[in-house]
Structure formats: C-alpha cells, structure tokens
Amino acid sequence: MILALETSCDDTCAAVLRDDGTIASNVISSQGIHDRYGGVVPEVASRHHLELVNAVVGDALRQADTDLDGIDLVAVTQGPGLVGALLVGIVTAKAIAATRGLPLAPVDHLQGHVAANFVGPDPFEPPFVCLLASGGHTLLARVEEYDGFEVLGRTLDDAAGEAFDKGARMLGLPYPGGPALERLAADGDPEAFTFPTAKNVAGLDSSFSGLKTSLLYAIRDLGEEETARRAADLAASYQSAIVRALVDRCERALDQTGLDRLTLGGGVAANGPLRAAAERLGANLHVPDRALCTDNAAMIASAARFVAPVAHPGYLQLDAYASGERALA
Amino acid sequence: MRTAVTETVSAEETAVVAAELARELRPGDVVLVSGDLGAGKSTFVRGALRALGVTGPVTSPTFTISRRYRAAGRELSHLDLYRLGDLAAEDPALLDDEVGGERIAFVEWPEVGEGWAAEHGRVAARVRLDHAGRDRRVVTIERP
C-alpha cells in the first residue's frame, strides 16, 4: 500500500491507497480532525502542519486498518506551494521512508489533482481535458497519459476560487467565500448585472482580476443600502460570469483537442452552476468526489503509482519547489 | 524621505510606473505595496517583475501566500499577507526565506503582522495605490 502526505497549502493531509487502486483512508485536517486539537483550523505558514502531521498520518493508517508494516511506498507533494509548508510533509515522508527502509515518490501537486480522476468508486481514464480550478490554481490541461499533462491555458492573474472568495469578501460574506456566495446567488438573477468574462483574453488562458474590479465598481455605484438589497443579484451575476468564463474555455479546449471527455477538479468543482453548465457541453463529464477535488493526499498517492520511486539515500536530496520554479510536464 | 505621486489612466501605465521603480532595486530590497481590493497591487507587482525579467505567468499569491521567481540571475518573490491575518499566531520563521538575503521581495498587505515584512528586509519603497475612478489610479511611492 502507498502512504501519501500533502502539505502544500492550508490542510495537513495523509492517505493510504491499496494496491488495487482503492482508497483505504483519506484524512484532511480541516475536515473534522482538528476538533480533537482544540478546534484549531490550520493556517498557512503556521506551526499547525508540524503539530498535526503525526496525528494525521496516524489517523490515516488507523482508518486504513494498517500500520507502517503494511506500507510499501511513501509519497509526498514536492511542489508547487509555500516552501515552508511543503517541507513539513517532505521531511516527515523522508523520516518515515528512511526509518522503514522504503522508497519515496515525489509528486507534483497539480499532477495529483489530475490523478484524482484515476481513483475512487468510478475511475476515469485518459484521454481527457481537465479543468482544475481552486483557490490557488486555475488551469486547463490535456491529459493523454497517466504520468503527465500538457497545459492548454491558465489564469493570467487571480485563480477562479480566489475570484469567488474576493467577490464574497466585497459582498460582506464570511470566509471561505465560495460556498457562501453560491448560496446567496441561488436567490438572485444571474442576468441582473453584466460582468466581464475576459473574452478578449486569447486562446485558453483566463483572467479574473477585471471581473473583481467590475464588482467593486458596481458595489460603489449602488451604494451600501442598494448593494445590500440587491446582494443576491450581484452574487448570481458575478458567479455566472466566473462560470461562463470557465465553461467557455472548456468548450474551446474540447474543440481544439477534438476530445469529448472532460473532468473538473479543485475546490471550485463543487460549485453547482459550474457542474450544470459543464454538463450542458454534452461531453462525457467526470467530477471526482468532493474529498478528491479539494486538496487531499489520496490524489498524491494515486499520482505516485506513475512516478519512478527514489531509493535511499537519493531521496534525502529532494527539496521543495515553490510555484513557478519548475516547468510543468 | 522622497514621495512621488503619479496618476495613471490604465493598468498598462501603472505597470510602467512599477517598471521604473524595479530598475532601482538591489538584492535584499523589499517593496511594500498597499491598497484596497482591486486597486491594482498585483498589476503593479507584475509590471515590476516583468521589468526584472520574469517572462512566465505572474499570478496572484493570495492563496499560496508567496510565489517565487528567478530571472536574470536574481531571486524574486511576491507575497500577499492578507490571509495570514495575524502573524502572532503563526510561525514567522516559515516565511523568513521569502524576504531578505539576496532576494528582491514585493509584499502586498504589508500592514498584516504589524510590520513583519518591514523588519525582515531593507525597505526600498512603500507604494500606495488608490482608485481614482474606473481604470485611473493614483500611485504614491515613498522612498526612504
């Protein structure tokens, strides 16, 4: 079995994947476990990864009904992400591998999101177009193989999840803003306001900073009272612009590649209107379970099956890489 | 202290002002960039990083807190402290590598953490961006 760790951003994650590709456990620190540690929600750059990592690994093994004797390979996210956070996972993985005499598989976080499609109750096989949209990343990938992908387009500024969160912040909604904005939007008219969808951005890249500024000016023009009265319409129109921008690019990517298989990943894949709009494209659509869409370690274990494992002592040299430091496959 | 105030009419012009500042920077410098949501902080930093030779995507560091770049033999970083809220609850050592040393760093929301960024590097400039209607911005640059 594979034991995987993922600490690239806010959550401390560990998972165990069986040899037949089924998930034995998938533990994510922000989803319940932290209640046992005084209700602390882990934050980036905090000591919390360090405080939680041993407990999260222990829980992943326990829930998988195994211990380190049952593990054949240790996998860990190497990047991209915040180096300080990544190092907690990398050092822990090295320590486990070294003390147990196991090989170690370094995994790219974005490849992990792609590999989330290869596990679960209903695995989805290449080739397909993958839209990955989260708080930290927004990209379209062409996936032809299990061990790599080609970037077709990416955001030029803000990520889609970040656009949701910043819009929510402007509308006075609580963090995390994505789900709160979606709930508010359910009561609004998506055509009440016209927000830009970055149509002028060429090819398959996207841009959300202009949209963010448009919402800001709409709120300023309306004034406090009218903004409060029309908050649902603002949320619905803003959400609609994000969804249209993403789905338009998915459609272009399907056209360009000639593929008829599409997957959604990242936290934004949980958005109902996005799923509905993606379904209307008519392609064969796959959306992994929510626990596999947000940051998690099961996807890292899944990707590790297609990475050449590094033996001792080679893996002791492995270092974290931040965003933008390593060209993607 | 020298203060320069420029009014720009487009994101492109804001980027040009940033590029001019970037050419003065030396290794170890920190530029603090303040302004409201949508004021153009990331546009400004992108303009500066382009001038320093970054050719790839320069995307928002809001979620990852910091993004690093390497261009023309220099180490660069772009931070956004907004999500940290209060560094007192954090371990600042985890961010020490992101500023100072030989690195040129641009820090958005530098107010967070009560001036942590200013203490960890040599502040070369404090930039403030203000809305002046639609795409117009007032860019205020203070140099020590």
UniProtKB/TrEMBL annotation, chain A:
UniProt domain Gcp-like: residue ranges: 23-301
Keyword Metal-binding found: yes
GO molecular function, one term: tRNA N(6)-L-threonylcarbamoyladenine synthase activity
Record keywords: Acyltransferase, Cytoplasm, Iron, Metal-binding, Transferase, tRNA processing
Cofactor remark: Binds 1 Fe(2+) ion per subunit.
Requisite cofactors: Fe(2+)
Binding-site positions, Fe cation: 109, 113, 295
UniProt-annotated binding residues for substrate: 132-136, 165, 178, 182, 271
EC numbers: 2.3.1.234
CDD domains attached to this UniProt entry: ASKHA_NBD_TsaD_bac
Family annotation (InterPro entries): ATPase_NBD, Gcp-like_dom, KAE1/TsaD, TsaD
Subcellular location as annotated: Cytoplasm
Highest rank taxon of the organism: Bacteria
Function: Required for the formation of a threonylcarbamoyl group on adenosine at position 37 (t(6)A37) in tRNAs that read codons beginning with adenine. Is involved in the transfer of the threonylcarbamoyl moiety of threonylcarbamoyl-AMP (TC-AMP) to the N6 group of A37, together with TsaE and TsaB. TsaD likely plays a direct catalytic role in this reaction.
The family this protein is said to belong to: Belongs to the KAE1 / TsaD family.
Protein name, per record: tRNA N6-adenosine threonylcarbamoyltransferase
Organism the protein comes from: Svornostia abyssi
From TrEMBL, chain B:
Keyword match Nucleotide-binding: yes
Main location: cytoplasm
InterPro entries, A to Z: P-loop_NTPase, T6A_TsaE
Keywords: ATP-binding, Cytoplasm, Magnesium, Metal-binding, Nucleotide-binding, tRNA processing
Lineage top rank: taxon: Bacteria
Tagged with keyword Membrane: no
Pfam family for this entry, one: TsaE
Subcellular location: Cytoplasm
Similarity remark: Belongs to the TsaE family.
Alphabetical list of PANTHER family matching this protein: TRNA THREONYLCARBAMOYLADENOSINE BIOSYNTHESIS PROTEIN TSAE (PTHR33540:SF2)
Purpose of the protein: Required for the formation of a threonylcarbamoyl group on adenosine at position 37 (t(6)A37) in tRNAs that read codons beginning with adenine. Is involved in the transfer of the threonylcarbamoyl moiety of threonylcarbamoyl-AMP (TC-AMP) to the N6 group of A37, together with TsaD and TsaB. TsaE seems to play an indirect role in the t(6)A biosynthesis pathway, possibly in regulating the core enzymatic function of TsaD.
Protein name listed in UniProt: tRNA threonylcarbamoyladenosine biosynthesis protein TsaE
Gene: tsaE
